[in-house]
């Protein structure tokens, strides 16, 4: 059975694309230590054809690059695993995220302590006023003041500071900050229901002002009475004057007996607590517990600890207060409110920890996601954009149809086992799947059916070095030219099949001979030396004195360093007889004169001027030597040209050594030493791979050696670079003729040999 195989370019959009590098990759991956996951690069169309997806990550900008292809495969698999991890991580975050926004409301409604408290802790007055009465100490206040005598119209207030000056007292807690800052204590308004308003009885006076006056009279008569100082503290608490309360309480503590100090301590603690010195107030109340009314002290201390957020201590104090006075409603309500608040805060803290953990997981997820996007960018960096791929498919289908009409096809036959398809030429094969071809697994190329199938076609520039190695291959592998693609310019997209076959027949009836291929000069201006090189080439009209004919002699220049490999090559070239003949390079002469700003200058004067320039210390010597090499190329003296360019290479900075190497390679190319020229150009590419002229020169050397695939690949690299290259544009037509119409030049299969 037979199948028709249509030839085309690049293998784009075919049912089967058996390009050499893809087959080599399959062999390499199959022999690896671990299996590689299958990709979705190939899809089966509705008409049964197998073709590549337009948006496949394996559609590369440089489909010949095996290393990038392998990296792309690794990146695709890595992205798949990373995507699985991101999805699993996102599911975990969503499943464990705390979305309970009504936690506080539900807690207040359902918690038993909250139900018993009826109101949240924040709605309770934790500054509830407390005091210890003088009566609890069996003291009658009216026994210490004169309640019978009439009061004058100008009533006095019991200002304790005016009654007694008390600079310091060991009993007055003057080390506390609240006591030290008593002048600045705040005075929140007292609620009307504060119990302190009901303490001083009307029997002591008709009004609070009258009671204050009678206390003042008592203090004036007895300035050491702790009872009167306590009564004065009560008076000032009613008046809401914290400073005066503290002053009177300090004096009461100073004169009180040990068992009676709790009255003044509770008064002082209430003032400090209301002034937001609750920690100081707790210290004062703890001192009162030693000789106190336990209920009042513990109840006051429970309020203070509740305000400080010390809920365990607060509950303990309320329990002690309830032991002293069981069933006290305010203590019961506050105890349950504290327990309610404590459990709420525990739940909120747990929720906060959960949310913080979720936040950390989200940050880690974002970090991984950013890493995923960076890897995706790496994948897209080498991927062909979809619009360009569609355009290539259109171009391919058009060209394939055109070639089919011109009769460019081949007959392939099925192998004996019907698992292989044998074709004469190494061309992409197009056929429809059906019963006949259902079991075809691979295609073999060549007249001999024993030829190795699916052999990799390596078009990498570095791999071409092996083509010129001294070792010869016993069974050279045919290399397909039609699988090499080129960059399309805007003009090419408008005229998809430029140039036409008829144009190529007229312009290039055959592959140009090596002598017909142009030589080039790589100018240092391409690398930013325009301001340096122009003064060197600025030759005045009277440069040469009459009769002076001294040409540039580079042999007298001392090398800064020597390159061993280049020296070996130069020694080999010395033995080459072809270099002994004078062969002027017309293209080099044209370039030389175009670089001099004086059109009337003769070639002899240019040589004299370059000889003078070599002796100027201010000019970079390697640049002058490079120009001298161009001069001797134009004259046709290869020995002097090689000497100048070798010296220029040795003196040039490393990043600019490719310039003399490229120019030396073009000199060798002019003398027909194509293999040596290609070696120098590959060496130049190792220094700098951004010069189109380097690739263009390399393409000419490969073309002269009949290495068509390597030549087209080098030409393509030259066209890929964005640097302006007029020489590239002039060679574009020849390059595309070789790509579009390989059968016209009988290069369907070209064997590259050393």
TrEMBL record:
Name of this chain's protein: TTC17 protein
Record's GO cellular component terms: actin cytoskeleton; cytoplasm
Gene from which this protein is expressed: Ttc17_1
PROSITE patterns linked: TPR
Gene Ontology BP annotations: actin filament polymerization; cilium organization
Annotated TPR repeat ranges: 295-328, 692-725
Gene3D superfamilies to which the protein is assigned, alphabetical: Tetratricopeptide repeat domain
Superkingdom in the source lineage: Eukaryota
Coiled coil region boundaries: 341-375
Pfam families: TPR_8 (PF13181)
PANTHER family: TETRATRICOPEPTIDE REPEAT PROTEIN 17, TTC17 PROTEIN
Signal peptide range in chain numbering: 1-38
Keywords recorded for this protein, A-Z: Coiled coil, Signal, TPR repeat
